[in-house]
Amino acid sequence: MEKQWAGTTYGNEWMHKWLIRILRYIDVRFLYLFVAVLIIPVCLVLNPSRSIAYRYFRQRIGYGRLKSAWKTYVNHCLFGQVVIDKFAMYAGKKFRIEIENYDAYINLTKQKEGFLQLSAHIGNYEIAGYTLTCQDKRINALVYAGEKASVMRNRDRMFADTNTRMIAISPDMSHLFEIDEALSDGEIVSMPADRSSGSSKYIEHEFLGAKARFPLGPFSVATMHGFDVLAINVMKASLRSYKIYVTPLPYDKAATRQEQIRQLSLAYANELEKRVRQYPAQWYNYFEFWE
Asked: What is the domain count for the chain?
């Protein structure tokens, strides 16, 4: 399962600074229109994500040819909006946020033990880091170490008042020790569960009608000491609003370790499929997810 995305936000530091300055004074909808008309058509011509997204809509969602082509365009426009929204938040703009099943999150933050929250490359998960906050437990967010410095600085600034720290994924896998330490200290660990974080180990599940590989790491970490797990998906509901879905992922903590991993990863795959079918145009895994 080879990634075709570099893992960084497009553009250089100068572009990012000017985008933030512009967004302090203009409505995001002007940039949405600009991107949809002038940027996305060029990207669809030059970027291999076009064919990957088309096959996703055609083979996995089951749309016809014309609808798959149209949804490929819509998908890229929505991804552009997600990126703009991220910088809009850096610029101080706010979005309406609705949280489904918020009590499940609050209940876990009140317990002594740590827990995991698993994300995916759908919707706009970064918004959860600025919304689902907890002063009683520190949140440790696993992030790609090669992200642009300007983005990392803005994340640091946004996280300053939310009791959140970032753990960079390291080639030597040293981030695993930081994750283990955080969970042992009763903290929260946030990590993606739909892409590999440096390890080649995976577990296969039926997903949208075909076998797909999910990274073993998140489920292995959770089951090592029987931690509770939440799936957190943040979906764009309208031009100015998002909906956060908080879903506890059940598994039998008395079962064998291998069976725990199977149950937990299956619960995650099922929850992810549910959200993807609910919001099919917000799938942003631009690599061959199904081998």
From this structure: 2
